Amino acid sequence: MKRILLFSFLLFMFSVKTKAQKIDNMYVHLYTDSLKKGTYNYINIDGKLSNGRFIPLDTTDINFTSSDGKFFGNSLWIDPGFKKEKVTIKATLKTNPSVYKEFTMYIKKKPDEKLKTLEEIMNEPNSNEPRKRKN
Description:
Blueprint: H1 2-20, E1 23-28, E2 34-35, E3 39-42, E4 45-49, E5 54-57, E6 62-66, E7 70-72, E8 75-78, E9 86-93, E10 100-107, H2 118-122
Parallel strand pairs: 2-10
Antiparallel strand pairs: 1-4, 3-8, 4-5, 6-9, 7-8, 9-10
C-alpha cells in the first residue's frame, strides 16, 4: 500500500512539474535599441511559463537564426564591415516551434561617445558652488 501511495505521489509531482515548466510565450528584452558592428550583441529572450512565472531562455531552449551575422549562444556577432541597415532575428522554441519571436534590429550608425576619465571628472569645476553675479 505504501509503495502504491509513494508511486502515485511521485507520478503526481512529476506531472505537476512538467505542466508548470511548459513555456506558453516568449518575450524579447533587449539591452539596446540597435546592434553594434564588430562586437557580440546579447539577445535576451524570456519565456513565460504556464504558471505565470518568467525564466531566461538560452540555446538549450531556443534556436536562433538571423538574416545576417552569426550567433554564438545568445550573442549575435555583426562583422565590422557590415553594410546593411538592419538585421532580422528569429528565436524559435525547440520544444514547440509554433512559439517564436521574430523582430528587426537596426545597426548603430553613430560612433560611441568617448567617456570622460576619472581625472577629467575630478578636474571639472564644482557645479554646487554659488555662481558670482555679473554686474
